[in-house]
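Saturday, quiet lab. Running sequence design on the structure tokens for the scaffold JK sent over.
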């Protein structure tokens, strides 16, 4: 029985050895660098198989001239492999132009084939060599929701109880006198606006660039209008410089005058600038997301800014009153008075500052700080007129109530000023070329002239039109240049694209 069993084993071995030699049942050879063993490294050689050792070699059948268990396997042919080139890698949606930051960091590979740059980019100004989209043009459009410092106004329109004596009607400080308009700050409400920022990097590494911006807020106005046929009483208060007491000009009074008074105060604010950008320091790396605990890209930049800064603030105050005499005992007429105060402020200066940016994953944080040093040019215009109509004939005189020949005119002044600006912006990268932003901006202007501050309440009633005798003393109201400061602050929401 034993020789027959040995013979069967020898026959099976002789049939299987050519098959193993041909490689049909051989294990696939691992590619270099795939984590497997190289051919022949640590593998048992075929001539060391138990089929070629042990009892089989001791069998008397092994010397048979017909069947032999001694077979020589051909040497395996080495497999030639070529390492994958960087262009064969998969970067998701990341453009091939620009540096792929953090891709070769072993700690970032678990984020996927895109490595640390799986969000596409670090933002326009993060990463030592740009990264993500093309390092050229970028544009950011923002909606502004800002508030500004209001303008102070003296009391301009008053009223009194109907039984108030004519001499006390509308006079500040008298019992029952109520201020209808003025005596407080106006145009300090939050309003909308827009800002457009555009920039250009001169080379792919984004070391040197230029940036410009323009912003404007919606014009804000405060309006007041009141009409009366005599009841209620309407008046415009002032200080009588000759008698040294408070007084008032009547607009409507029972059985004496009926009239209308309208006041409008309008403010407009806008600005622009252009600056160069120079990168002083930057870096990138890989961190851990607080949300997904996955490795994400990190980076920072510190840029210096220098350029030109422009701001403009315009104020305009218009007061118009129209009144008609209703006293039948004395002939009267109609009166139309107008006072106008307007200021234009322009700032021109050298702007300098810095911008610090950080990113982690698709999130970014930008902090902007700038200081502009220059000059405020203020243009101030004061005008007034009175039209008196009697018996169908009208005559126009210079001067209203608060604007007289003593302060009417056009004047220009230059004053040293500084304009610091602070900004904080949080951004989220939607894809390699688009980012949404939400931020806060604060702008301060040290020296401006506001229209309401140029009003002088001290009046010599002898100057009121028509001026019967030329007044040579107590020439009031007078022009007294008054400066104040101004600020604007609020939220910004925008969309940024780069190409």
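Result came back. Writing it out in full:
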């Amino acid at each position: 029985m034993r020789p027959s069993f040995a013979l069967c084993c020898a026959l099976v071995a002789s049939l299987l050895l050519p098959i193993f030699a041909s490689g049909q049942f051989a294990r696939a050879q691992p590619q270099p660098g795939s984590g497997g063993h190289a051919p022949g490294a640590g593998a048992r050689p075929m001539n060391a198989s138990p089929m070629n050792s042990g009892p089989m070699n001791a069998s008397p059948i092994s010397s048979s001239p017909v069947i032999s268990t001694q077979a020589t396997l051909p040497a395996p042919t080495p497999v030639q492999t070529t390492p994958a080139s960087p262009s064969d890698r998969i970067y998701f949606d990341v453009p091939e132009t620009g540096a792929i930051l953090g891709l070769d960091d072993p700690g970032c590979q678990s984020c996927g084939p895109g490595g640390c740059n799986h969000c596409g980019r670090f933002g326009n100004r993060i990463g030592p060599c740009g990264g993500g989209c093309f390092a050229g043009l970028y544009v950011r459009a923002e909606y502004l929701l800002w508030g500004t410092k209001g303008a102070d106004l003296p009391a301009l329109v008053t009223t009194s109880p109907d039984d108030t004596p004519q001499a006390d009607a509308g006079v500040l400080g008298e019992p029952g006198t109520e201020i209808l308009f003025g005596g407080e700050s106006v145009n300090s409400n939050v309003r909308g606006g827009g800002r457009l920022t555009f920039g250009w990097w001169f080379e792919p590494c984004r070391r040197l660039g230029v940036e410009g911006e323009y912003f404007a807020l919606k014009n804000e106005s405060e309006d007041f209008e009141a009409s009366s046929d005599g009841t209620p009483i309407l008046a415009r208060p002032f200080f009588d410089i000759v008698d040294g007491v408070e007084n008032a000009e009547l607009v409507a009074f029972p059985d004496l005058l009926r009239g209308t008074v309208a006041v409008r105060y309008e403010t407009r604010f806008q600005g622009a600038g252009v600056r160069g950008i120079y990168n002083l320091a930057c870096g990138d790396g890989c961190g851990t997301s607080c949300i997904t605990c996955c490795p994400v890209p990190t980076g920072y930049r510190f840029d210096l800014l220098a350029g030109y800064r422009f701001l403009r603030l315009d104020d305009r105050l218009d007061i118009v009153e129209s009144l008609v005499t209703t006293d039948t005992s004395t002939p009267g007429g109609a009166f139309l008075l107008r006072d106008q105060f307007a200021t234009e402020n322009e700032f021109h200066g050298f702007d300098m500052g810095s911008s610090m940016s950080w990113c982690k994953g698709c999130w970014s944080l930008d902090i902007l700080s700038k200081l502009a040093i220059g000059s405020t040019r203020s243009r101030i215009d004061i005008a007034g007129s009175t039209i008196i109509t009697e018996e169908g004939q009208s005559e126009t005189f210079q001067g209203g109530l608060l604007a007289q020949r003593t302060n009417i005119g056009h004047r220009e002044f230059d004053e040293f000023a500084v304009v610091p600006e602070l900004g904080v912006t949080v951004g989220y990268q939607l894809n390699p070329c688009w980012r949404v932003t939400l931020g806060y901006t604060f702008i301060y202007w040290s020296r401006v002239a506001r229209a309401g501050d140029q009003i002088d309440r001290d009046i010599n009633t002898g100057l009121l039109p028509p001026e019967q005798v030329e007044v040579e003393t107590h020439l009031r109201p007078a022009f007294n240049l008054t400066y104040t400061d101004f600020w604007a602050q609020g939220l910004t929401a925008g969309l940024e694209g780069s190409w």
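Notes for JK: The chain has two helices and 19 strands. Residues 2-22 form the longest helix (21 residues). Ask whether to fix the surface positions before the next round.
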